[in-house]
Specification:
By secondary structure, this protein is an alpha+beta fold. It has two domains: 147 residues, no CATH class; 57 residues. 49% of the residues lie in helices and 20% in strands. It contains seven helices and six strands. Helix 2 runs antiparallel to helix 3. The longest helix has 30 residues. It is elongated and about 70 Å long. It starts with 10 loop residues before the first helix and ends with a strand.
């Protein structure tokens, strides 16, 4: 069990902690992370900050009259960079949490949450050599791997990923075991009882009495 505790009522804290755990888990399975999209985002952000800082320093030392034209150029450049950064985050990365490959399989995973919905949504894209990329969505309630008092429990989270994503299951066959998946329980009995009373999904992210929602599409 993780030593750090988050608020079980904060979707932002639950998502960020889970996002971090996802990346750590896949890197631990020897997935080689591709940081190219992250590098572009960081570059755009850093250049914008440098322009803002340089403009302030020039204005402070030389005065407004000497720098007003350069300031106008800097403001325009700053606006363009921030527009590009926003586009990159929302249209290119689209919530990307991890992108990497292992044994010829490239895995891209993007996460999101919905307002007032304590559910973790993942869009998974797997690309194998000489094959068309396959994309599908999976989801599970945060109570699958968070205790009622906000502690993260790695085992059920890893089992859910390994069972739902074949490329991850290939790298972690034990956690992808069918028997272990069927025996998955919430981290605490209290959470499990609460799920039953509320009619929430079970620990595999499937609705009670139904199979796990995993809609596959080719693209």
């Amino acid at each position: 069990m993780a030593d750090s505790r988050v608020s079980p009522y904060s979707l932002n804290d639950l998502k960020n902690t889970t996002d971090d755990a996802l990346g750590n888990y896949l890197r631990g399975l020897s997935f080689k992370q591709d940081n190219s999209k992250l590098d572009v985002r960081l570059a755009l952000g850093y250049v914008a900050v440098i322009i803002a800082g340089a403009t302030f320093a020039a204005d402070y030392k030389l005065g407004w009259e000497a720098t007003k034209y350069w300031t106008a150029v800097a403001v325009a450049a700053y606006a363009v960079l921030n527009t590009g950064l926003t586009y990159w985050m929302y249209m290119v990365e689209k919530g990307l949490v991890f992108e990497g490959d292992r044994s010829g399989s490239k895995v891209s995973i993007a996460s999101k949450t919905k307002k007032h919905d304590p559910t973790y949504y993942l869009t998974v894209t797997v690309t194998k050599q000489n094959e068309t990329p396959s994309t599908w969505q999976i989801k599970a309630p945060f109570t699958t791997w968070f205790t009622a008092d906000g502690f993260f429990v790695a085992k059920p989270f890893q089992q859910w990923l390994a069972t739902s994503i074949e490329a991850v299951g290939d790298a972690d066959a034990k956690n992808a075991s069918r028997d272990e998946r069927d025996e998955l329980a919430s981290p605490t009995a209290k959470v499990q009882v609460q799920q039953q009373n509320d009619g929430h999904v079970d620990s595999t992210g499937a609705d009670k009495g139904k199979g796990s929602k995993r809609t596959k599409r080719k693209g």
